Amino acid sequence: MLLLYFPLQSWAWNWRTRVSLSVKQQPLSEVCRQLGKTYGIQFSYSRDVVRMSQMVDVDVRNVSLKRLMELVFDENGVEYKRIGEQIVLTAKKKEQRTISGYAEDAITGEKLIGVTVYSPLLQVGTVSNQYGFYSLTTKRDTLTLIATYIGYEPVMISLKDKSSRQLKVQLKPSNTLKQVEVTESAPKLQDQTQMSRISIPLSQVKTMPKLLGEEDVLRTMMAMPGVSGGRDGVSGMNVRGGSPEQNLVLLDGTPVYNPSHLFGIYSVFHPDLVKNVELYKGAFPARYGGRLSSVTDVSLKDGDMHKYRWEASAGLLSGKFIVEGPIWKNKTSFVLTGRRSLADLYMQPFVEKNLDVGDNGEFGVMFYDANIKINHIFSPRDRLFISAYGGQDNMKLLTDKEYNDSFGDKSYQEMLNFRLGWGNQIYSLRWNHLYNPRLFSNLTASFSQYFFLTDYRYKYESFRVPEKDNLFGKYYSRTQNGSLKLDYDYRPHPNHVVRFGLQGAYHIFEPGITQFSSQENDVYDTAYNKEKPGGLELSMYAEDDWRISDSLHLNLGLHISAFMIFPEWYRSVQPRLGFRYMLPRNWAMKWTYTKMVQYIHLLSNNSTYLPTDLWVPVTDKVRPMISNQVALGLAKTSKDKQYELSLEAYYKTMQNVIEYEEQAGNFQSATKSWDEKVVIGQGSSYGFELLAQKKAGRTQATVGYTLSRSRRSFPNINNGKIFPYKYDHLHDLELMLSHRFEKNWELSANWMYMSGMPLTLASASYEPAPGSSPYDPPLLPGSGQVDYVGDRNTLRTMDQHRLDLSVSYNWQRKKFDYSMNMSVYNVYNRKNPFYYYYKYDENMGRRDLTQFTLLPVLPSLTFSIRAK
């Protein structure tokens, strides 16, 4: 330690001694030297403790020594104390304070998720949580903070006092043509500990390609690497080799069991209501549990607190509206939306003609949904949210046809009446409470219900032989979930973000089937599975996002859960671990390990593509599904923050996955003893993902590529051999591009390519010997042969690819904003397969493999109007 002393003059001094001093851009050591030389004041300090190189400007005349010390040393973080005849200088202890509050849209009062609040001097910051709350603990002498958010103008916040306090951060939407404002303090991809995560805020939702007239959250998610939607017209996401029921979809924290409309063309999320979307493909934070493959967390807008607004649009396929505004200005707001398909109102005759449903036939497909949400502020510490959602899909097909033989005489008559429907109902009540500037809580009570119904009636009558058939069947399922969840968000220090909480949920499962058939005097009437089993699920979690140093960040978490279905208890401990280490040239290396457990199963027939959703709980024979996933990746954001690149490789194993037995189908297996009709096996998936994005400027682009494999094995299926899972495809490529022109024009395009998916078909046929087993496949139409089916999924469907285009024109008037959008789905009318079947050609006397395509080229024109 080096001590410096200045000579003590012969005269005495005290704090009231009058002094004069003038220095300009000189170090603190020069101030001490001049005071010592002129007034004989001795200073003692250590250069290892006090930074005396700090430059100061001082120009005072005839002031007290005490006042001069305040001006020079207090403002530069130096403490001073008289000991004897010398002044001892030490570094001032940095007291801390916490600045917290809510980040919101300055115009509407909407709380913003993911706003970065940053101290440029200390180079530390925080991000607002799912409810817009942020908390940043800094040194007491921090004078300036900067807040940034994608699509909003950055704001500089001056802190006039040095006490801890609540501070509302208000950001204004950017009105420039740059769709994303890039700022120096915006978070970079390599700074985030989390990997396998995709986040889309409100401003980016609006810039997504408008396919079929509107943006769609799930469709955009399916364009990301590691995520696919399967065949055209099939609802549900497949993430990293998993099946749709392994995805947890949350709407404001409440689970949604089927998030699709119209076989996956639209999602249940009204695009104008979505505020933020986060997708986790792996590296799941500890606060999530209950599914194996992914978590999609959708947050909805709260409603404008200051002004009434509305928007409406109508197109060839659907119409929708949204209304929002204050009930009690600055205290209570609401938002209401509604949406309905329109194509069924005018396209029905055209579709029926092409489907050849007969003179009395009928075909129709439609959907509708509605949301309402109320937001009330009791105090700066307490907020209440009430929300509800309801939606439904319906499809009906009625055919009534007569067939003639080659002589023109009536041969037989056939009638089919088929109906398919599904829907969701969701209700939630949430209470936000702020205990202190560092501790925030959210209490959520929610109820979710999903139902599925298929019924059919088939009649057949021959005019040539005395033969009649009369079949009726009903296939239905209902799942209910009521839960209470308490989450805490604690931010003791900028280097730590701690989250913990607990949840209790009760599940009710109601799968069932009713079958009736009548063939002359033979009557068969059966009702399956009238029981309503219920299961209680309990969970608790804790996680810490810990910044150990500038180079090393850790995310440590633990999720503990239990599921009780009388009289059995199933328990699990699920660790979550992730770390990020900075490599040279600002590349971030990330590694994660995640264990997930799922206590509910979906009975799904491997040979059908319809949403036959029968949710069932675990049993003593069918245990919970378990997955273990590891991922390794690299990530980087360019210096100008316009470009992002991430590379990830993953490997996932799954235990206790189920499949129907070879001879079982949905109608034979959805019984009280369904667990005796399924087999239990294992699965694995691995792959490589690349995501490159240009996120700023008039032109934005996304390239997502996945190279992957997904496998399953079951003791009693495929002779115990490993086979490709039905969602396995080697290559998946998605290209998205959007460009905004000078004069209110916007163009977007999306091109997808996916290699063929596994398929099982007959590989040979043979003549059955007399007295063959009754379990032999049925005779082929018009022949005495039966099919022989070899190994499972040894064939592949055709590769799929499709181009979608969208052009929008926007213009403004004094009171309203207008928009016209023209989009084309499947521009070059690619006939992607929906399913394959054998069709017997009577004239040629042979069977042909026939492909059925569900979605051809679909043009759409949509007009929107929005009140300012």
Structure description:
This protein has 868 residues and is mainly beta. The protein folds into 4 domains: 18-91, Phage tail protein beta-alpha-beta fold (3-Layer(bab) Sandwich), CATH 3.55.50; 96-187, Immunoglobulin-like, CATH 2.60.40.1120; 197-298, TonB-dependent receptor, plug domain (Ferric Hydroxamate Uptake Protein, Chain A, domain 1); 299-757 and 797-867, Beta Barrel (Maltoporin, Chain A). The chain is built from 7 helices and 54 strands. The strands form 12 sheets. The protein has a 22-stranded antiparallel beta barrel. β26 and β27 (382-404) form a beta hairpin. The protein starts with 17 loop residues before the first strand and ends with a strand. The model is unreliable at 1-10, 176-186, 519-525 and 773-783 (pLDDT under 50).
Radius of gyration: 33 Å
CATH architectural name of the largest domain: Beta Barrel
The low-confidence runs, each spanning 5 or more residues with pLDDT under 50, are: 1-10, 176-186, 519-525, 773-783
Provide mean pLDDT, rounded: 82
Our count of domains comes out at 4
Strand content: over 45%
At the third CATH level, what is the topology name of the largest domain?
A: Maltoporin, Chain A
Main location: membrane
InterPro entries: Beta-barrel_TonB_sf (IPR036942), CarboxyPept-like_regulatory (IPR008969), Plug_dom (IPR012910), Plug_dom_sf (IPR037066), TonB-dep_rcpt-like (IPR039426)
Protein name: TonB-dependent receptor
Membrane topology: Multi-pass membrane protein
